Amino acid sequence: MKKMTRAGLKAKPLEPAARAPLSRRGRPSIALLAVLLVGAALRLQRLGHGLPDFLEEAIPFRRALEMWGWQTGAPDWNPHFFHYPSLSIYVHHVLQRLHYALGMLLGQFSSPADYALSYNIDPTTHVLVARALGVLCDLATVVGAARIAAILAPRISTWAAALVAVAPTLIATSTQIFSDTPATALAVWSLERTLTWRRDGGRVRFVAAAALAGLAAGTKYPAALLAIPLAAAIVLKHGARPVRHLAVAATIFAAAFLLATPYALLDFGVFREHVLYELRHASTGHFGQSHGMALPVQMRLLSANLTVLGVPLLGLSLLATVRHRRARPERVIIWSCLLPLLAATLAARIAADRYSVPIIALGAPLALAAGHEVLGRFPGARVTTRLFGPLMVLWAGWASFAHSGHRPVDTQVIARMWCEEHLGGDGVMLVEAYGPVLLDDSQRSEILHSRVFAEASAALQQRFLARPHLRAVSMPLSVSGRVITSLPGPDGHPVEATVFTDATDLNNLFYDPRLLNGVDVVVTSSSVRDRFAAEPERFRPALGFYARLDRAANLVARFRTGGSDTTGPTITVYRLGQARSDRSPLEPLPLSWWTERIPETYQRAATALLGATPLPRPNPATACPDSVSPWVLGLRSFYRGRISPFSDDLATQLLFAGRYEAARRLSAATLAMDPMDVMAFRAYAVASFGLESWPEATRQLEGFASALDSLGYDSAPLKQDLGRLKARYP
Fold this sequence. Notes:
By secondary structure, this protein is mostly helical.
């Protein structure tokens, strides 16, 4: 017998099945190219869905737009946002720059201001460019799945790619602007490089595997779980001495993550705050959800993408991997990634189909490989195994092919068009979240007075001015986290105090019927209303608000999902301006309207720190109370951040509509919290003049201007207002 030397061991080739490439020459096969064409076609036909209405959250895209620095003219490379890592934001920003450069060459844009204003007029081309990134990343995932499948069993490579290409959840997610699709592409290729390195070795493959894992984590935080399969591969390959390779991999992983999200270090305080928020968000749920994606829901989703056979086949694959783990190291590595991803998805109290995208992409090769192994044990295995892949693909892709080219209209779009046609004029609207997306007067005024509008071309300015706009005010909606404020402690250091343990409870504040004084139209959405109805005791004030609308307002329009032609929430439009016999008059809005639902737990904690004796107000220029409770003043920053944006916007729209009394009460509530709020005082004074309380308003303006002068503030704008009002109301 020939003696086997060390050199002979090194030279011994691997099994052909473990080395089979996608084609003999290492290039994509014709079959894989066909799969990519089909996958691209299924995605591209959905690329323009919903446009020109842009209803997506699209956080990476919108954050990338903000980085242009429209007000300063200089880009700000710090996204100031770390709820998501930064790589997808930076990539979208680069795409926007390329889109702008191409538009300059084609004569579409003459300046960055043109680019920004054209987005506010019609975002279609901007969004198509951004969605194209998702399609390209998803096609990269298809190729990555094929390469992973080739390592498991070469015959299933093309069918694994096809199964991923026709998966409905991947198609839908890739044609929306999320970070999940690029993160999945990076994760799949990191795993592919990890498997290839464990099999063939090579420094470049090792570095690529660790770097791609770090970039995936720099796109979406849960992708950091890729460190587990990378560590598993290192241990399997260098079981006796893995420490050095583990350290190098960790260093490369961290460097890639920081390259993708550099301000995680440079702006560490904000990074830490946002990451902790997201951890609480995942553990407490979205919009008060009591549960996330439960196991049966996850199984149904996997069945819809991998067929009902795919789920039990994944179970068989896991059992076989555990039983034969030493003989199947590549499956151990894949499952060491797939199981933590599945566990993280099930543990989070947030349900979203897109969270399952990487699970589907990695599950397809495993399910097909398990199916081929099971069928291979029966007579006629050659025929059945060859038919198994095509049947799985046709089964899974039936829904994708059946709905190809079908574009249902969203009820939010239908409601937006109806509102623009029927609700023009001077009426004031309150619009609930997930209702029609309208260009309101506040947004329009902000753009008209912006640097972007001033520097844009005259043609684009005219197009923007021609856009329909309404006097609409968006109702705030808090969906996760907790609400805290900072109070001075006994030793002078700030003490954190919790106002609401669940920020969702804050929503009850804004469903106060007294806020309807001066309002003409209210638009509600079932996305919010149904959530409140699910917990009637918790959201009793909000449900009482709806009950009053149903009882006392006129229902003028309702837009529901109907068959396959429309999708979205049920949107209901109420008109308050027409008298009804069962309407009771609204009570006037008191200055303390927003304090009535502040939890007693906060009131007691704040009173213990600040005392119970009412504090004098520094400026008695308005008809506000002379003193305020200390626990209320302790909420000044809370009021500015959570209440004032809505209150000020509503007061402004009421003022422009001539609803002076309602506007003055809202402004007075702001002044009770911050007597030096110039904008609130200007609104208060203008409302007083509108109510023909001219001597009182003049005295208030003069007193407030003097108070500002004594404190070193600029009172010139108020004095100009005073001069104009005196000229108008001599």
